[in-house]
Here is the input.
Amino acid sequence: MQRNVHVRRYTVMMPLTIVSLSACQPRCVRLSFVARSKSRKPLKPRKKNPVLRGNHYTSRRFDVVAVGASAGGFHAIAELLRPLPAEFPSSILVVQHLDPRRESLLASLLRRYTALRVKQAEHGEVILPGWVYIAPPDEHLLIGPGKIQLAHTSLVHFSRPSVDLLFESVAGVYGSRGIGIVLSGSLKDGAAGIRTIKEAGGVTMAQDPAESEFASMPASAIATGCVDHILPVGKLSIALMSLYDAGSPKLYG
Here is the structure.
């Protein structure tokens, strides 16, 4: 005997909550840098994929890593991603300031230097561990509960996409389970957002301005007094991986 079974489909709309910026004053830090391109070593192809030891997606401490960069950012992003294994347990969202008039090749270029899967972000897609999502040109990249959100709203610090908006959305949705990283770039995009992630209980990092091609963005983030780790980009990768196992300073090998 056969029974006809009818299944109803439901669509659930989950609101995005963004934490407002705090009015607290930054620590008194005087920094002065000249925005100029520095000589750099050529990028090397990635080595054999590192092995993830004793970690599982279900036991991860962090859900999202948000990365912001501008001028000189490609080299820094590639160096940050290169040591990470394909089994990296979190999603990585990247805002790199791009020419809004041109199609972005950033995702395809980064694939050459990392074992992670890299793609340009699409509105409404579900984020997955081990994937890197690149903000498309002229669109703000935000994160809702488990999904990408793109918005063509006003420029922030003369930029769209905005690092600050990405960081604020990560803080509002994921709180202490989010990580924010500021890399090479001009001006100060990301400084306000890094403060928001820190105040939400997340972990914050910045590339050492002394080795950044353009020091203004990481220096502005550091000047807030809200950055936990200030390191050369190669060591930022090591610090990032070690965060996924509090009991082991060297999780990968």
